[in-house]
Structure formats: C-alpha cells, structure tokens
Amino acid sequence: MVTTVDLQLACDGDMPQKTDFQRWVEAALVEVQEDCELSVRLVDVDESTELNATYRGKTGPTNVLSFPFEAPIPMEPRLLGDLVICSAVVETEAQQQQKAVNDHWAHMVIHGCLHLLGYDHIETDEAEQMEALEVRILQSLNIDNPYLDQESSK
User: Fold this and answer.
1) Cβ atoms 106, 141 nearer than 8 A
2) Residue 93 class from Cβ within 10 Å (0-12 exposed, 13-18 middle, 19+ buried)?
3) Are 38 and 80 in contact, with CB atoms under 8 Å apart?
4) What tens digit of pLDDT does each residue of 55-69 get?
5) Pairing of strands 64-68, 78-86
6) Which of these, 14, 42, 57, 58, is most buried using a 10 Å CB contact count?
7) CATH assignment of 3-147?
8) First-to-last CA distance in the chain?
9) pLDDT in tens, 15-49
C-alpha cells in the first residue's frame, strides 16, 4: 500500500518534518489495504478560527479539523480527505497538558486520520472505541497514552 501525504504549510513556526507526518499517517492507516492520499494543511489561528466557525459553528480555533472525501465512484488512489491542523493550538495544548510536542502532533494527526476513516467520538461507546484505537496506534510509535492524565483528573 502506498500512502501519499500532501503537506501544506500555511503558517510559520517550528513544526515537525514531512517524514514525521508521513510516519504518523501510515501508522493510523495501517489497516487500509489500498493506495490512498490525503492532505494535511498546517494553519494559523485565524484560518483555524474561520474554518471552525464555518464548518462546525464553533467559536475560536481548534486543534484539528477533518474533512472526509466521499468519492461518487471508486478512485485510485483512494482520496481520504483533508486534515487542517492549527500549529499554535497543538503547541499550546502540549504545553498545558505537559506532553512532548511531537507526541501531541502525532496524536492530532492520528485522531484526524481516524475521523477521515469514519470514526467519531460523539457517543460514549464511539469515543471509547476511537480512543482505544488511538492509544494502540500511538503505542506502536512508542508514544504514551495521551488520555492517562485526563482520566486521573476526572
């Protein structure tokens, strides 16, 4: 299987390398048995805020937005969709949650990829399934469970 990641830099800052994004996407899509392609766009707070308001009706920026692509006919490679990640939000969250920045980047990419594959976290059972899959994928990359601190603070 070949996974193509189109990385778009629409903001400044110290961000992971393209090879990091490729590795994280491939880890998230390990069970996809066909060639696929997706875009990952790294944006600033203004663009994230605008997209979050337009597509989710929410105020302010967010860490990752996922835009799945539904092909009207089967295509090769399979176009999964687009991820839009706000660099500033990811950096701030990592600092606030006392997590390694690259680990949080990996989590956001994997989280977004799972949304592109149809996973969601609206209902409790869906959230538990998605979180368990995220944890398993992150562990395959030697990254700790990102939910441990959140669970202990509940």
Assistant:
1) yes
2) middle
3) yes
4) 999 999 999 999 999
5) antiparallel
6) 42
7) 3.40.390.30
8) 40
9) 999 999 999 999 999 989 899 999 999 999 999 99
